[in-house]
Amino acid sequence: MKLVIHHNTHFTYSQPLLYTVQTLHLWPVSSACQTVEFWDIRTPGTLHSQPDAEGNRVHSFSLVARPEQGLRDNSIVAWGTVSTHGVAEFTDTGLLPHPAFYLRSTALAEPHPRLAAWARSVVPSLTAALDAGRLPAVADLVVLAGAVADRVRYRKGSTNVETTALEAFDWELGVCQDQAHVMVAVCRSIGLPARYVSGYFYAANEPDLASHAWADVCLDPATRRWISLDVTHRCPTDQRHIRLAAATDYTACLPVKGLRRGGGEESMAVDIRIGLWTDADEPGRAQG
User: Which of 33, 151, 226, 252 could form a disulfide with 247 if both were Cys (CB 3.0 to 4.6 A apart)?
Assistant: First the structure.
């Protein structure tokens, strides 16, 4: 499936913005799951590429203004075309962190004994296999994803970007970010390396679903084999999914993250539109 994505992030300020530096995880990477046909990002400052040990393409820019020239708004526009391959299982290259790196505890996806006990109760065949030293079965991981979706019912506005996996688990409410964090934390709790994935999801005429999150779970640390699981939709990822970045949790791969001086009150509006590619769509300038 060939998809065209337009992602516009617009900041407005109640007072002049004097200085800001922002880091972006807004450039998808070609992989077994997808091919980035072209991609571009436009910002009000000069864009600089930054290294990322987790295989993501990261950029940053800064803005400096005199008080009398302070900015009142700031727009970041990313767009391009990506061909998705419908691949959910893939192997990491040796340049990426060893899967054991994704067993580590993070603020938003911390392992916990209660999460491990819950996993044992809902998918006993999965934990029995791990206890016996066997590799996890894909079918068991899909069942676990469905159990997380049942436990953390999808409800917009019930959590925020600082909600932890254990909080969402206890509140039994959340959005795709929370469901992904709970899946990651549960897997880590039973000894399975797992990581958080930010990306896009194509659903015709459903723009509210465009920004999405899911989880990668390691099937075999020795061969660095992984599977991507969409907890919200209770399935392995498919041609509707576009990967932007993968990391230990949301805080490590925010689409836009920054610091600023001045500006007063800040408000942010995000508009993401995804459509099927047609011959009318023009090629971009930068290859992914």
Answer: 252
- Cα 10–16–19 angle (5° rounding)? 80
Shortest CA distance to 88 belongs to which of 132, 39, 141, 153? 141
Do 59 and 49 meet the contact criterion of CB atoms below 8 Å apart? yes
Residue 244 per-residue DSSP state: E
Q: Write the pLDDT tens digit of every residue in 44-55.
A: 889 999 889 999
* Cβ-proximal residues to 7 (8 Å cutoff; 6+ apart), any chain: 26, 77, 78, 79, 200, 255, 270, 271, 272
Confirm whether pTM is higher than 0.85: yes
As given in the structure block, the two tokens for residue 70 are: 């302070």
Q: From CA 245, how far away is CA 253, in angstroms rounded?
A: 6
Residue-level length of the chain: 288
